[in-house]
Design a protein that fits this description.
8 strands; alpha/beta; binds 3-methyl-2-oxobutanoic acid; 11 helices; 2 domains; TIM Barrel; about 260 residues
């Protein structure tokens, strides 16, 4: 899979699946899965480091996670997030940030928003760096929204999302993530673009879907956004395993003779 294959998938009407990943162990598992691509999301700041937003993700952190994921990801296409403000501090800073994750092995970058950094997106594309856009709920703007809220519910904001999606396509983005917008709006955007849309909380009318891996695996029983279907009760499964280990240690059955060196 490459950025070009995203276009082809849309032409052929094939749905694209993506998941986030932040570490080598899970990347190795994903390398053997059928998902189309991996995102090293700046959600690493929340999922792996316990921050309450993605704003804490620095470029050093993104590089570290990208290096680890790429080491395990085999031939999977890896997209890495451009973290908070890196597209807004001028061209040099944006190119430096993109260079950090691309030299770490990513095959593309994801950039939130478009207004005010059109030049950066265009320069990245012209520099041979595939760019994935991200519209709707842009988590790096959580403070402007006053929380993680569905976007595009009103006519004006819906039109703005359509306009920005078209702008991203014109600037050369190869795909766009649509996060937390009404399903009918996401379907409209999807129908109006040649590049694929990848939805999260944006209904089934997108060209593909992405979920945070830990949400998909049900690792956090306290976090239940309605769009994040857990495909496993990961938290309970892991707790059960740790419980069995604890019992085996305490009743003396672990380690057995076969698990010991003579
Ligand atoms: O950082 C992230 O995990 C993301 C996805 C929600 C698309 O941007």
């Amino acid at each position: 899979m490459s950025a070009n294959d995203f276009f082809q998938a849309k032409v052929e009407g094939k749905r694209l699946s993506m998941v986030t990943c932040y570490d080598y162990t899970f990347a190795r598992l994903l390398a053997n899965s059928s998902v189309d691509a991996i995102l090293v999301g700046d959600s690493a700041a929340m999922v792996m480091h316990g921050h309450d937003s993605t704003i804490a993700a620095s470029i050093d952190l993104m590089r570290l996670h990208t290096v680890a994921v790429v080491r395990g990801a085999g031939s999977k296409f890896v997209v890495a997030d451009m973290p908070f403000l890196t597209a807004r501090r001028g061209m040099g800073a944006a190119l430096d940030a993109a260079a950090e994750v691309m030299t770490a092995g990513a095959g593309a970058v994801k950039v939130e928003g478009v207004d005010g950094h059109e030049d950066v997106i265009q320069r990245l594309v012209q520099s041979g760096i595939p760019v994935m856009g991200h519209l709707g709920l842009q988590p790096q703007s959580v403070n402007a929204y006053g929380g993680f809220r569905v976007q595009g519910r009103h006519d004006d904001s819906a039109r703005e999302i359509v306009r920005r999606a078209t702008a991203l396509q014109s600037l050369g983005a190869f795909a766009v993530v649509l996060e937390c917008i009404p399903a009918c709006l996401a379907a409209e955007v999807t129908g109006s673009l040649r590049i694929p849309t990848i939805g999260i909380g944006a209904g089934s009318g997108c060209d593909g879907q992405i979920l945070v891996l830990q949400d998909l695996l049900g690792m956090n029983p306290d976090f239940h956004p309605k769009f994040a279907r857990p495909f496993l009760d990961g938290a309970q499964t892991i707790l059960d395993a740790i419980g069995r280990f604890d019992v085996a240690v305490k009743d003396g059955s672990f380690p057995s003779a076969a698990e010991s060196y003579s």
